[in-house]
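> forwarded from #structure-qc
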């Protein structure tokens, strides 16, 4: 199913090469039927069929059925994506495709492993691997533009407290959302005492690489492929040309000081330590490659803070020290140590560039919040599940949002049972729902307006009364 979902919505016209069993060198070419056109993009029958098949398979796995015809639903989804993509090009929406190559290669490697080799994959797809890679690149690029366009449409939509209250009051009380079980917990974190030493080792490795490139001993791209911890490593650290605003500030500032062919000094960002080579600059677009490394530790260095935190946990369990006192004295986490170690989403908000902490900060977490998308570590959840309210965990290894390794102990402060949402206890959740509803309304209106103004043709055979937006059929 994963394979089918990942291969839908290819935006290039596909040619299916069928091997003639009686003459191995002769190929017959069949052109796939175009069933719709949006702006300058076509949609093929094969795309619709694969998308529809993936929808059915996904729903079957989830135990969910839909009254809508899968083919009509798939075609409408593709029409919407093509419209967003074309409008993004019209509006010159900028897209950060720096990790595109890495995503494609990761997916290709999964397919190659699944099929048992490159030759087997080429035989199944009836095309050479480089053609298939280019088709994937086009697909990912189109999806990125479409997502960015949609995000731009709704990015300025906000809700005020009065709108949240009206949203809540207008919901039928029997239809109020159920908020799942939530957890309130506290933490004490410790980075390895040798963090500065590890950072220095990382800087020295990068300085050595920089020297080897400058003196002509090796190429920057070779070192990037061998050592860089970024998806761009597959392409020698090379990234798509982008405006400086698409890079984090320290990276952008270093780029702006370089001339083509020059290599930066070490640059520290939230992603690690970098050296950057500027390939060229055209207008406001910087074309560069980079190598990024993060500090690494020996096992002894990682275990040292774990042993210290296990001792702290013992003191807390023996009532020799409260968790609040221990957090203030020992924790390396500045956002929680002064609040008894209570964990909030303030680090996630800061990472997202949202600083309205008084209104948006939350200390209650659903199970789904313990994920890469939710912002809290699954390691935290696994430790909390072994505790009763009031208990303190043993130390465990985890990492922060920037990938820095650390040790941690947690205390389960409270479990809030699943309950019907209320303004008093679940304002932030309700605000998210009210915002989503308003964004959906704004987006749907925008989409209808664009359908009317953009060229859209659908083959009569594929026109359907099952489309949610009736404007598609002109």
């Amino acid at each position: 199913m994963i394979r089918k979902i990942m291969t839908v919505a290819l935006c290039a016209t596909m040619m299916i090469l069928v091997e003639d069993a009686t003459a191995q060198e002769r190929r017959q070419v069949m052109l796939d039927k175009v069933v719709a056109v949006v702006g300058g993009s076509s949609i093929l029958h094969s795309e619709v069929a694969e998308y529809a098949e993936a929808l059915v398979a996904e729903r079957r796995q989830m135990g969910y059925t839909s009254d809508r015809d899968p083919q009509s639903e798939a075609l409408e989804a593709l029409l919407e994506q093509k419209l967003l993509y074309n409008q993004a090009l019209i509006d010159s929406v900028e897209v950060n495709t720096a990790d595109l190559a890495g995503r494609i290669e990761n997916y290709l490697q999964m397919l190659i492993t699944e099929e048992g080799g490159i030759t087997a994959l080429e035989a199944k797809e009836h095309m050479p691997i480089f053609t298939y890679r280019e088709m994937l690149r086009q697909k990912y690029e189109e999806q990125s533009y479409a997502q960015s366009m949609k995000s731009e449409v709704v990015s300025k939509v906000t809700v005020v407290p009065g709108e949240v209250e009206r949203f809540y009051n207008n919901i039928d009380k029997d239809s109020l959302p159920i908020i799942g079980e939530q957890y309130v917990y506290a933490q004490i974190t410790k980075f390895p005492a040798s963090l500065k030493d590890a950072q220095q080792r990382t800087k020295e490795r990068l300085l050595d690489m920089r020297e080897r490139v400058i003196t002509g001993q090796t190429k920057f791209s070779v070192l990037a492929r061998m050592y860089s911890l970024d998806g761009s490593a597959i392409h020698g650290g090379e990234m798509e040309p982008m405006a400086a605003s698409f890079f984090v500030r320290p990276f952008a500032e270093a780029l702006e000081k370089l001339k083509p062919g020059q290599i930066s000094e070490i640059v520290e960002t939230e992603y690690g330590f970098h050296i950057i080579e500027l390939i060229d600059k055209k207008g406001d677009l910087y074309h560069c490659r980079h190598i990024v490394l993060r500090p690494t530790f020996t096992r002894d260095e990682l275990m040292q803070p774990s042993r210290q935190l296990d001792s702290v946990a013992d003191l807390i369990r023996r009532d020799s020290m409260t968790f609040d006192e221990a957090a203030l004295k020992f924790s390396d986490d500045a956002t929680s140590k002064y609040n008894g170690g209570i964990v909030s989403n303030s680090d996630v908000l800061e990472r997202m560039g949202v600083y309205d902490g008084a209104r948006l900060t939350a200390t209650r977490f659903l199970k789904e919040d313990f994920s890469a998308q939710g912002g809290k570590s699954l390691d935290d959840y696994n430790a909390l599940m072994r505790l009763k309210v009031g208990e303190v965990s043993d130390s465990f290894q985890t990492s922060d949002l920037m990938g820095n390794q650390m040790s941690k102990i947690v205390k389960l402060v409270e479990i809030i049972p699943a309950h019907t949402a209320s303004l008093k206890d679940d304002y932030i959740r309700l605000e998210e729902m009210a915002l989503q509803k308003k964004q959906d309304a704004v987006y749907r209106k925008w989409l209808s307006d664009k359908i009317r103004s953009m060229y859209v043709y659908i083959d009569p055979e594929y026109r359907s009364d099952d489309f949610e937006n009736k404007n598609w059929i002109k």
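QC bot note: Residues 181-193+297-417 form a domain with the Chitinase A; domain 3 fold (CATH 3.10.50.40). The chain has three domains: 2-156+444-472, 181-193+297-417, 195-293.
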